[in-house]
Amino acid sequence: MHIDFTKYQGAGNDFILCDDRTGELSAQLTRETIERLCNRRFGIGGDGLMLLGQGAEGFDFRMIYYNSDGRESTMCGNGGRCIVRFAHQLKLIGSTCRFVAIDGPHDATILDDGQVALGMNPVSAIQEVGEQDLVLDTGSPHYVRFVPDLREIDVVTTGRAVRRSPAFADQGINVNFVESATDGLRIATYERGVEDETLACGTGVTAAAIGHLYRTDPLASGNFRVGVLARGGQLAVTGNRSGGAFTDLRLIGPATFVFSGTIIL
Ligand SMILES: N[C@@H](CCC[C@H](N)C(=O)O)C(=O)O
């Protein structure tokens, strides 16, 4: 089996991308194969793998996302931004597009500096857990814990403990630790399906920005822009809010070509 692939990364969240408009790959790829391709020693290496599939009427393409454990998962924000650059590389789109992912339609724009602004679904359900933590779904489920100093957090040990706790063990959850600084937020994320810390998580960054605004003032309204510094780079979230209802969300950040090749299995 020959697989042509391209690797992209968005703020250090890295992905294997394959053009599967014919549908041949999705019919052949097993969970074990995806896991092996994502393995950093035995494969290409990546936090996840995405197939660019044929879009339905009105969409440029379909995004199918697998975590590095080989299982298909929910929305990936950095993956969404990377697949837009991949579609552009394939000359499938110009600087704007509309695609469909597991959580529904998304629109995106490639900005003049090459960054990608990705439309995210509205969020209005925010669950408070204790005094510091929130749970919300930004296309993927996220647990957000606000901490005074990110440097003091053991992200893997604490993130894994939350992810494996009885409330989340079955479905899993991504766990974000967020510090509020004068120039924006800083974040570290333990990702479900990678079962490790990754260098950035786009749906996690979106959850952190929303959580921060909600916690600071649950009743405020208006447009916003929140900068979020992940371990692997700077992202931003823009949108509009009316109390706990967040709309017109856009996740903005880099999406960069790494290399391409063919792997023979
Ligand atoms: N890296 C992602 C999130 C990918 C999905 C996640 N691991 C899950 O299974 O929920 C992002 O950038 O959003």
UniProtKB/TrEMBL annotation:
Is the keyword Zinc assigned to this protein?
A: no
The Enzyme Commission number assigned here is: 5.1.1.7
The record's listing under InterPro entries reads: DAP_epimerase_DapF
Q: Name one GO cellular component term.
A: cytosol
- Family listed: Belongs to the diaminopimelate epimerase family.
Free-text function comment from the UniProt entry: Catalyzes the stereoinversion of LL-2,6-diaminopimelate (L,L-DAP) to meso-diaminopimelate (meso-DAP), a precursor of L-lysine and an essential component of the bacterial peptidoglycan.
Q: What interactions and quaternary structure are annotated?
A: Homodimer.
Q: What is this protein called?
A: Diaminopimelate epimerase
Q: Which organism encodes this protein?
A: Neolewinella xylanilytica
